[in-house]
Amino acid sequence: MSDLTEATDSGRRAQTKTRNRDAILAAARRVFAELGYETASVRDIIRRTDLASGTFYNYFRSKEAIARALAADAAERLRPILRAERERATDLEGWLDGVIRAYFRYLVEEYGQASGLPHVRIDATPAQRAVFEELRESLTGILGDRLAPQADTDFLTAGAIGIARYVGEQMLRRAPPDPDAAARFAARMILHGLPAVARDG
Amino acid sequence: MSDLTEATDSGRRAQTKTRNRDAILAAARRVFAELGYETASVRDIIRRTDLASGTFYNYFRSKEAIARALAADAAERLRPILRAERERATDLEGWLDGVIRAYFRYLVEEYGQASGLPHVRIDATPAQRAVFEELRESLTGILGDRLAPQADTDFLTAGAIGIARYVGEQMLRRAPPDPDAAARFAARMILHGLPAVARDG
Amino acid sequence: MSDLTEATDSGRRAQTKTRNRDAILAAARRVFAELGYETASVRDIIRRTDLASGTFYNYFRSKEAIARALAADAAERLRPILRAERERATDLEGWLDGVIRAYFRYLVEEYGQASGLPHVRIDATPAQRAVFEELRESLTGILGDRLAPQADTDFLTAGAIGIARYVGEQMLRRAPPDPDAAARFAARMILHGLPAVARDG
Amino acid sequence: MSDLTEATDSGRRAQTKTRNRDAILAAARRVFAELGYETASVRDIIRRTDLASGTFYNYFRSKEAIARALAADAAERLRPILRAERERATDLEGWLDGVIRAYFRYLVEEYGQASGLPHVRIDATPAQRAVFEELRESLTGILGDRLAPQADTDFLTAGAIGIARYVGEQMLRRAPPDPDAAARFAARMILHGLPAVARDG
DNA sequence: GATGAATGAGTATTCATTCAT
DNA sequence: TATGAATGAATACTCATTCAT
């Protein structure tokens, strides 16, 4: 084999490598979302791939490892968006709205009906939890900055997160889901409470 | 054997029986809370007991069955309290406060630090989900009654539930947890939003 | 307690004892016939009794032991009848007929439709095998006596036994089963072969 | 790797695979024959193999499945032979002889002393029953065709089957077993009865 | 790197038998 | 003697992971 061929070969190989890795990741994402981390088996994952079971372990050390990779990847995709929203905002409401919208758009992209997934619980997999944690950190950071020192920041953040979490899940049930409207709703509810959002539904 | 002895005998036996049943239930409650339903094994449960593996099946038909029993029991303990709160309340805030307080008290009783449990995720077991569902139904019922028809009841209920869920979880992390204060916080946040609760923490 | 009472008591006790023993035996007979020895469990047996599981072991040392008892009992009931038939007979045909009739009557009594049992395989339990073995011994004994020394007694007995076994099973499927006719058929088939019994069905 | 190596590789692998499969089947055949289907455990089977317990399930879905495979395989091996015998025969005796001989040869091959098996009950496993059922169908078919309509075909077939069954079992006890002689005996006994075969043993 | 069979610890559950009452 | 709960070894089967090819 000439160097040229070899170069081509290794190019192809690298290509195959990422293609396989991506295929496994994609399969795992779906399987975890459908069955939950515990119930899903490595065999479930590779079965949705044209690879053999042993190949899984060329790419990931364990079932736990792929879940972690998935989680890290999801968190890393969301993180810069959240940061951008944080910088763009001028007031608290705008900021909340931006951050939650980013999260909701992520949810729709990942678990919206187009994904063909059945009803999705939003924290059944490590990836979902990681993404949610990303949101939590953003909220914690900002609220910690802006609230009066005597405020119960933990509880406040918890409340805000709760709204985002369950309104987000509810949004995913709608056809079509509207992440922007849902985010506006959540942000207003966080800031002004139930009566404010009850008036104009 | 005299009747007296016999009565004592069967009394003791019945006593042992309930003691064992309770021990298994308690162990299961802890194990499920620590590991989650899927991860927990029947062996994990009986290992925390001084009973033999087979004994588990003298009391419960299956792992699923004990989870159901735990869930039904928990839901049934909460239900009458929720109903009572519903009747006692005169305004929406009082009502929200009462219902959430009932839920939070239940959480503290069940998963407060006294239980020696590490950090508890509030919806990892069928029992927790059943209790939470009980709360959801209460909230859904009341909010459905009181809100203007054009309001987005699903989203509103989702938001209220989210606040209760995550403020409750946060409360469990405190030493000592104060369910009444936390409930007041949650109810006010639901009704008036973040600024109202940020002022006086 | 006076001696008198005691005597009465122990009389009652003995009575209860045999009643219990018989109840367990009867239940076991049915359960073994329905499920086969392997599949039947001790719990299956005592469940058909108003006794408790532990009581079983006051009467029989083990599941195997009750099966042996059942087998011995059945064999002992059949044995004198077979012996009587053997003595009554004047020729080989009469003798075969008598012995097989005794066996078939036993089958009908034990496993005929009146027993409410579903289709019965005739050698699924130790008792059935013991009874069958009794028949085999009778046949072996007689044929050994009467056959020419150069005859292949083992094969001949095997053949005769086979006819009795399968014609007997077939008979049990009929409503009502007619053990006497079936025995006559079997005896004639053994002695004269298929054409003899084919003529007059 | 060159194609050649690959071919060799997969050849070896396929070889191992069939070797393992055959080893499991052989072990199962023996274990079932010795202990009966109910009593035999999957562990008993793999223990007679140098494989690990999980490996069993790479080859068969369940204990039931391997029993079915064994039964189907046995029946399929016997079926064409029986059919051939049926076509070759010119008279009833020849036909009976052929069919029973096929069955007896199968028995010797499968459970003859070379197998090292202790005394074998001929209908304790699904495979044995399947093979026997194959014989029964052959006998039923032919006798149904050739007998006078008023004949009691059920009883006649039962008798013929019984002879084959027990003479076959008896034959297996001999060293060496002679399936052809035994078949001739059985066929003659079916057709002419005991005296015919008693004369020349 | 890809394959897929092999591994064996682990799972829920059953059941003959024992034993305190 | 009767009771029935307790026992623990055994069962069929699963699955994350390894490894020879």
Q: What is the tally of helical segments of chain A?
A: 9
Helical content of chain A, roughly?
over 70%
The CATH class of the largest domain in chain A turns out to be: Mainly Alpha
Q: What is the alpha-carbon Rg of chain A in Å?
A: 20 Å
Write down how many β-strands of chain A occur, each being a DSSP E stretch of 2 or more residues.
0
Q: Which word captures the global form of chain A? A: elongated
The main pleated sheet of chain A reads as:
none
Report the average pLDDT across residues of chain A.
90
Distance N to C terminus of chain A: 69 Å
What oligomeric state do the depicted chains represent?
homotetramer
* Helix-strand string of chain A: HHHHHHHHH
Do you know the CATH topology of the largest domain in chain A? Tetracycline Repressor, domain 2
Q: β content of chain A, as a range?
A: under 5%
Low-confidence segments of chain A: none
Q: Greatest chain-chain interface? A: A-B, 40 and 40 residues
CATH architecture of the largest domain in chain A: Orthogonal Bundle
Number of domains of chain A: 2
Report the structural category of chain A. mainly alpha
